[in-house]
């Protein structure tokens, strides 16, 4: 089975990325009609995925796609897995994606960057399909981050607008930060479960729940899920993401990015759910997000913001239901997720059509559009009926199932049931505000002469609104072939689900549905009053985190600037002192801490010429310390190098000695020439305190290297490498001089790199000294005070 589907699914997953490459070119060739051609791509993926429906439904387990080896030594491979959960998500992403591409063709018609927009949409689509089909944890993470990056491009599509840039950056920071937490959580899952494959983890029972690091693991996973699915207090980015064009909002809110966090929670539920921590954190934060989101939706005048807050609330409802770990509640969450994708995608497209054809989406400036836009009106009503949970739309079954799952006699169950009823009631009111307020009442003069949108704008919402009803008419297929396998994948065992026109049972859940509708009608008629209330607590919860984000970013920028000024002062002397201090600490401290200080060696008997060489080095050192000018210091420094070269010569290394003589001579000449371009006559003007600090650093660094070399020489000498070079220099490299062979052949690339470094350094030095006169650093290159270089070189002048 894996071999049968493997190649096709990999090809299907690669198709959106290929379409992203060709979309701009096709747009230039075909104009706005390109949407019909581009929509064939997601439609083809949808049709291809449909062949998995029967296999997944009848087998009771997923289809493993033949993996592609990536980094097998770390257990990382490109592997895909199709089960009831991933299949329904992939069908929604590709199916609704087809309608969104068509809608974009009408909505973005005439836009100069429509081709670029299509490219971003396909990248986003491919990333999201990859998230839900990925089996390997690292494959999942890579696609997860791709959704953050591509959503950044889409939200900031109108990049000339400051609000769009802010919203895009905010979404990237929030979801990207959550992605880092998710990465840590996935790695902990790998360590605890012993495999990188999610499908294998799902078969290992309580291995994650019984792990000692379960709490930390869960919090990290929730960090990724909560930020992506906009749970309180990370919900604010989703509201601000409304700066994106409406096709992006419709896709983002219905079937893609914001559902990724819910998908992740559903995916890991069989191995991480049903614990006290899980059933405490998820219901609490989900309930807060639900109530806050629905109340804030009733306070908006912008129709897109109203829908945005209801999406936040719906995500909170899904998280709350999954958090109960109750089979019936999870089944309700699955049905609601499916229904939500249909009615929310349709609603956003309808609002976009109103904005496109009437010139505004402010509900206070709209009214009486029913006659001008009849198709949009009836589609909006159908979406509202499903969103409100009215029979015979599929939203009705979702509400019944969730109430059945939440019912209980203990206090937590009562509180969650109350939150669900209150949240659904406000959701009902918000749904009909969007569906009725713009269309009913007296006709209002709008910025544009309102009329029905073209077929590309109305096809999508009509299709999705109709599917909310058709899902009930064909309930046997939808329930048995799609949603029941999906629910089984979430709660981990086979359950029961009945969907259809006749699936109405008069029970306590039905009574709660009637109460919800009654309250929802009341919220609808109290919409004007609610909008003008001063709900300080809910408003603070809804808008406060957004303000905190600005405060956090501003503080981060100030902290970064101060840290930069501290660490990058522009004073070369400070940089050198910090570098040498770090070297000294790295050399000496470990030896002291780990008690690895070398034994002091016995001083050997020396010949007169060896004493003379050491005396020469001491004389050079003294001359260097007491030197009054830089030229004297440079020459004295060369004496040290010549003394080392003599030591090499006396101990039988003439080639190394010759190299040392040449390098030391060239170094003295080059440094003298460079300093001659700057200033050789200035005296050392450092105060005594600074001289003491510099001298102490010099002594510590010298002592550190001395101790290191003593420690190395006192250890046992390993001849393996020496013997290798001795044995093979002649045989392999055809050279008798082992040192030259090592440098040129065995370490050829290393030597080439060193030469490149020296060359680049020489060029940099030449550039710095280019055109400088004998008067110092104030060359013609740096006379422009507006460049700020004077401040950066103040430390250098002080050192001189």
Automatic annotation (TrEMBL):
<dbReference type="Pfam" id="PF00361">
    <property type="entry name" value="Proton_antipo_M"/>
</dbReference>
<feature type="transmembrane region" description="Helical">
    <location>
        <begin position="78"/>
        <end position="103"/>
    </location>
</feature>
<feature type="domain" description="NADH-Ubiquinone oxidoreductase (complex I) chain 5 N-terminal">
    <location>
        <begin position="74"/>
        <end position="118"/>
    </location>
</feature>
<feature type="transmembrane region" description="Helical">
    <location>
        <begin position="755"/>
        <end position="777"/>
    </location>
</feature>
<feature type="transmembrane region" description="Helical">
    <location>
        <begin position="305"/>
        <end position="323"/>
    </location>
</feature>
<feature type="domain" description="NADH:quinone oxidoreductase/Mrp antiporter transmembrane">
    <location>
        <begin position="134"/>
        <end position="418"/>
    </location>
</feature>
<keyword id="KW-0050">Antiport</keyword>
<dbReference type="InterPro" id="IPR046806">
    <property type="entry name" value="MrpA_C/MbhE"/>
</dbReference>
<feature type="transmembrane region" description="Helical">
    <location>
        <begin position="140"/>
        <end position="157"/>
    </location>
</feature>
<protein>
    <submittedName>
        <fullName>Multisubunit sodium/proton antiporter, MrpA subunit (TC 2.A.63.1)</fullName>
    </submittedName>
</protein>
<keyword id="KW-0406">Ion transport</keyword>
<feature type="transmembrane region" description="Helical">
    <location>
        <begin position="278"/>
        <end position="298"/>
    </location>
</feature>
<feature type="transmembrane region" description="Helical">
    <location>
        <begin position="456"/>
        <end position="479"/>
    </location>
</feature>
<keyword id="KW-1003">Cell membrane</keyword>
<feature type="transmembrane region" description="Helical">
    <location>
        <begin position="169"/>
        <end position="191"/>
    </location>
</feature>
<dbReference type="InterPro" id="IPR042106">
    <property type="entry name" value="Nuo/plastoQ_OxRdtase_6_NuoJ"/>
</dbReference>
<feature type="transmembrane region" description="Helical">
    <location>
        <begin position="631"/>
        <end position="651"/>
    </location>
</feature>
<feature type="transmembrane region" description="Helical">
    <location>
        <begin position="606"/>
        <end position="624"/>
    </location>
</feature>
<dbReference type="InterPro" id="IPR001750">
    <property type="entry name" value="ND/Mrp_TM"/>
</dbReference>
<keyword id="KW-0813">Transport</keyword>
<feature type="transmembrane region" description="Helical">
    <location>
        <begin position="6"/>
        <end position="26"/>
    </location>
</feature>
<feature type="transmembrane region" description="Helical">
    <location>
        <begin position="697"/>
        <end position="717"/>
    </location>
</feature>
<dbReference type="InterPro" id="IPR025383">
    <property type="entry name" value="MrpA_C/MbhD"/>
</dbReference>
<feature type="domain" description="MrpA C-terminal/MbhE">
    <location>
        <begin position="693"/>
        <end position="768"/>
    </location>
</feature>
<keyword id="KW-0812">Transmembrane</keyword>
<feature type="transmembrane region" description="Helical">
    <location>
        <begin position="33"/>
        <end position="58"/>
    </location>
</feature>
<dbReference type="InterPro" id="IPR050616">
    <property type="entry name" value="CPA3_Na-H_Antiporter_A"/>
</dbReference>
<feature type="transmembrane region" description="Helical">
    <location>
        <begin position="211"/>
        <end position="227"/>
    </location>
</feature>
<feature type="transmembrane region" description="Helical">
    <location>
        <begin position="414"/>
        <end position="436"/>
    </location>
</feature>
<dbReference type="GO" id="GO:0005886">
    <property type="term" value="C:plasma membrane"/>
</dbReference>
<keyword id="KW-0472">Membrane</keyword>
<dbReference type="Pfam" id="PF13244">
    <property type="entry name" value="MbhD"/>
</dbReference>
<dbReference type="GO" id="GO:0006811">
    <property type="term" value="P:monoatomic ion transport"/>
</dbReference>
<feature type="transmembrane region" description="Helical">
    <location>
        <begin position="574"/>
        <end position="594"/>
    </location>
</feature>
<feature type="transmembrane region" description="Helical">
    <location>
        <begin position="248"/>
        <end position="266"/>
    </location>
</feature>
<feature type="transmembrane region" description="Helical">
    <location>
        <begin position="115"/>
        <end position="134"/>
    </location>
</feature>
<feature type="transmembrane region" description="Helical">
    <location>
        <begin position="329"/>
        <end position="354"/>
    </location>
</feature>
<keyword id="KW-1133">Transmembrane helix</keyword>
<dbReference type="GO" id="GO:0015297">
    <property type="term" value="F:antiporter activity"/>
</dbReference>
<dbReference type="Pfam" id="PF00662">
    <property type="entry name" value="Proton_antipo_N"/>
</dbReference>
<feature type="transmembrane region" description="Helical">
    <location>
        <begin position="375"/>
        <end position="394"/>
    </location>
</feature>
<feature type="transmembrane region" description="Helical">
    <location>
        <begin position="499"/>
        <end position="525"/>
    </location>
</feature>
